[in-house]
Amino acid sequence: MKARKGQSSWRFYKNAWIFLEESKENLLSEEEAKSILKEKGLMVRNTYDFDTKDNTSFWFIIKDKLEDILELPASTRTKIRKALKIYNIRRIELDELESVAYEIISSAEKTYKIKESSTSSRDYVLLFERFRERDNCECWCVENKTNGEIVGFSINYVKADSCDYDYIKCKDEAIHNSSYPFYGLFYTMNQYYLGEKKLKYVCDGSRSVTEHSNIQPFLEYNFKFRKAYCKLKIHYKWWFGVVVKLLFPFRNLIPFRNVKAVLRMEEYSRESK
């Protein structure tokens, strides 16, 4: 994922351009989108009217209020307290994290509802190269107090008034052994970014087009994240747009995951009009 020249808020990811400052993104003109696609890529994901009052087809999952722990569900409070007894939740340097993260990622991928291709060693190197491209990257880890094992982590992008929880993984066995690492991790990061740093909000990304994880409903229920609705428009390279239009009527019949994801995004875009 690389930044567009002269546009540090744009990132190129899986043949698509994505704007990273969701609260500052505006509706692009056709000419602006064509200019972006002249460089490379097949599509531009353009979200705008961030946190609109309308219930649209697309959203970001955010938390913009830090409540007392007593306001969280009773079961959530119990799990947070247990996690904090078992684990240290601490900041970690990217280099230290890279030395242990591959095993965590491989384990985490076993838990996905929709099985994706596993992360190869080359994918892993490229992943951490992407993280190093940005100077506002902060990493957190979940470390067992007894043996020092790191069982989970989060890599975050800190912006002027918000923080993206960009890449979060946890070992499968830690998730299923009743030690609740995610509860401790999210609670501690929320306290830090919303409480100590006084950021406007934290964000766990946009509506999923792959639905491989339950993380967003988990955050809504346990930590009172909410949907910040927005509008969505997808701009395509001309020939790719023709392909999308031809395939769209058959979107429920196509078995290929990557194609289904593009067509689902097109569906969200059409519903947003």
Short description:
This protein is α+β, with helices and mostly antiparallel strands and 273 residues long. 38% of the residues lie in helices and 27% in strands. The chain folds into 2 domains: 2-60 and 230-272, no CATH class; 65-199, Gcn5-related N-acetyltransferase (GNAT) (Aminopeptidase, 3-Layer(aba) Sandwich), CATH 3.40.630.30.
Q: How would you describe this protein?
A:
Strands 1-2-3-4-11-5-10-9-8-7-6 form an 11-stranded mixed beta sheet, with helices on both faces. The two termini are 29 Å apart. The model is unreliable at 1-7 (pLDDT under 50). It has 273 residues and is α+β, with helices and mostly antiparallel strands. The chain is built from 9 helices and 11 strands. It folds into 2 domains: 2-60 and 230-272, no CATH class; 65-199, Gcn5-related N-acetyltransferase (GNAT) (Aminopeptidase, 3-Layer(aba) Sandwich), CATH 3.40.630. Helix content is 38%, strand content 27%. The longest helix is centred in the C-terminal third of the chain and has 16 residues, at 181-196. Helix 2 packs across helix 6 (181-196). Strand 1 and strand 2 (7-13) form a beta hairpin. The protein is globular.
Task: Please specify the SSE layout and strand pairing.
Blueprint: E1 2-4, E2 7-13, E3 16-19, H1 30-39, E4 43-48, E5 58-63, H2 74-86, E6 87-92, H3 94-108, H4 121-132, E7 137-144, E8 150-158, E9 162-170, H5 172-175, H6 181-196, E10 201-206, H7 215-223, E11 226-236, H8 238-247, H9 257-272
Parallel strand pairs: 3-4, 9-10
Antiparallel strand pairs: 1-2, 2-3, 4-11, 5-10, 5-11, 6-7, 7-8, 8-9
